[in-house]
Amino acid sequence: MQILFVHNNFPAQFRGLAGELARSPDHRVVAVGSQTAQDIPGVELLRYRMPFFNVSQTHPFARRLDVEGRRATQILYVLSELRAKGFVPDLIVGHCGWGETLPLRAFFPSAKIAVYCEFYYRPEGQDIHFDPEDPKFGVDGVVTLHCKNAATLLSLVDADLGLSPTSWQKQTYPTEFHSKIQVVHEGVDGEQLQPDANAQFELPGGRVLHRGDEIVTFIARNLEPMRGYHVFMRALPSILAARPNAHAVIIGGDDVSYGASPEEGKSWKSIYLDEVAGQLDLSRVHFLPPQPYDRFVELLKTTTVHVYLTFPFVLSWSMIEAMALGCVVVGSDTPPVREAITDGVDGLLTPFHDPVALAEKVTRILAAPGEYAELGTAARETALARYDRKDCLRQAMQILGLPSAAPEPSPPGDGIEASERPEDRTAPFIVRRGRSAPGATQEDVG
Question: According to the UniProt record, where is the region Disordered (predicted)?
Answer without folding.
Answer: 401-446
